[in-house]
Design brief:
Strands 4-3-2-5 form a four-stranded mixed β-sheet. Strands 1-6 form a two-stranded parallel sheet. The protein has one domain. With about 90 residues, the chain is α/β, with parallel strands linked by helices. The longest helix is centred in the last third of the chain and has 8 residues. It is about 25% helix and about 25% strand. It contains four helices and six strands. Strand 2 and strand 3 form a beta hairpin.
Length: about 90
């Protein structure tokens, strides 16, 4: 998960452990959905590449974002409002 730099430097989030990835493939996050705020078009971001997609391909994927501290707390507490709702 990407977080803003100030979240990491605030001192509010101590590093508990730093575990290296087994290999380069494991270091990549899963695909994420991107939704253009102007056109409403969908894309998928994966391994540094962005490709066009449709709504169905994005269902169930996390929406790509950089997170503020409160969003991280929400996610730890089980809030999943950042996944695309297939019913909307």
């Amino acid at each position: 998960m990407g977080v803003y730099d100030d979240v990491l430097k605030s001192g509010d989030w101590p590093v508990i452990e730093n575990r290296p990835f087994v290999d380069e493939n494991e270091a990549w996050p899963p695909p994420a959905c991107m939704i253009d705020q102007i056109t409403g078009e969908f894309s998928i971001y994966y391994r540094g590449e962005i490709r066009p997609a449709d709504r169905e391909e994005c269902e169930g994927l996390e929406i790509a974002a950089v997170w503020e501290a409160q969003h991280i707390v929400d996610r730890i507490m089980g809030e999943d409002k950042w996944h695309l709702d297939p019913n909307k």
